[in-house]
Amino acid sequence: MKADQYVTVAREGMHESEINRSRFLCSLAPAATEQEAQDFVARIRKEHPTATHNCFAYVVGADASVQKASDDGEPGGTAGVPMLQMLMRRDIRYAVAVVTRYYGGVKLGAGGLIRAYGGVVGEALDELGTVTRRRYRLATVTVDHQRAGKTQNDLRSTGRTVVDLRYGAEVEIEVALPEADLPAFEAWLADTTAGSAGLTLGGETYAP
């Protein structure tokens, strides 16, 4: 069963925190694929070549099917895992976090590291904000050119999301609908267009 919605990072950005003289920089970004997440990690590492550690965690998939974390030289389980746990606790998906640490001379101990790495990810999420994306079914409404304008207006006035418009022999209006709304939508469409519109169900998408 696919998730009906997920939460992700609103935008790419960075949050800095100082803990016992160590600088912790948390870089966060949305990532649509695992490759995007890995590219972001590589980019941040390049930006901070002299950092003591560049630890990362990412979650890809609305059902969190891909989860990876790296301690990058910190004691096992004290960096990447708490970062990943923070993303999961906040229900964050399709996102990548890199925490860059510049060591300041004071050892934090395992508990201190876990709190620092998890905490700075939480703070970054608070600062950059999150967006909820819901699962929609794509459906294509086919109408003749005479009805196209009115049908579009009717769709928008009932709060439905028009994703795409294609003009050919007929006009195809692609809409995104919550799965539960499909039966009511079919009835509404038949009523509004006096049964003249065609409806084809397509794949799924996630949208705000």
Automatic annotation (TrEMBL):
The organism's place on the tree of life at top rank: Bacteria
Family per similarity comment: Belongs to the IMPACT family.
Annotated InterPro entries: EFG_III/V, Impact, Impact_N, Impact_N_sf, Impact_YigZ-like, Ribosomal_Su5_D2-typ_SF, UPF0029_Impact_C, UPF0029_Impact_CS
Residue stretches making up the Impact N-terminal domain: 21-125
Segments forming domain UPF0029: 141-195
One Pfam entry name: Impact_N
The protein's name: YigZ family protein
